[in-house]
Design brief:
Low-confidence stretches: none
Structural class: mainly alpha
Strand content: under 5%
Largest sheet: none
Shape: elongated
Distance between the termini: 101 Å
């Protein structure tokens, strides 16, 4: 069977047999899509990153698979999902190029926090050393 025969055979099939497309039933798929949508919408609300809202709307589109067994539905859903994934990747790149200070602010905040923690550790070590020296001096005076 060559490539042209495969395309001809596939084009003649109008309906697909219900494949083992999802390992779980419709109710589970619906629940997972709702949870994913709510999570990504909330993350968009808190962080304002465009790829999150794009993916939030891409999740429910996967429910189209339950509408019909026609191949056109599957292909349409696949094309829409592919376009949204590419759009999410492009939005991430554009967002990171236009907002590099967000990364720098996060990195700077982490550095400041690390420096504060290391300063506290050094200070605690110095206090412990001073306490040991004081106890040694006091024990020497009593003898």
């Amino acid at each position: 069977m060559n490539f042209s025969d495969m395309i001809a055979t596939l084009s003649q099939q109008t309906e697909m047999v219900q494949p083992e497309l999802f390992p779980f039933p419709f109710k589970s798929h619906l629940i997972f899509c709702c949870i994913g949508f709510i999570f990504l919408a909330y993350r968009f609300y808190t962080q304002r990153r465009p790829h999150q809202i794009i993916m939030a709307f891409a999740l429910p589109i996967s429910l189209m698979v339950w509408l019909s067994e026609k191949k056109s539905i599957y292909y349409t859903m696949g094309i829409i999902e592919l376009v949204l994934i590419v759009a999410a990747i492009a939005a991430t790149i554009v967002y990171n190029v236009r907002h590099p200070e967000k990364k720098n602010e996060q990195g700077a905040a982490e550095e400041i926090q690390d420096e504060a923690e290391s300063a506290e550790t050094v200070e605690a070590d110095e206090n412990a050393a001073e306490n040991e020296a004081d106890t040694d001096d006091e024990s020497g005076k009593e003898e």
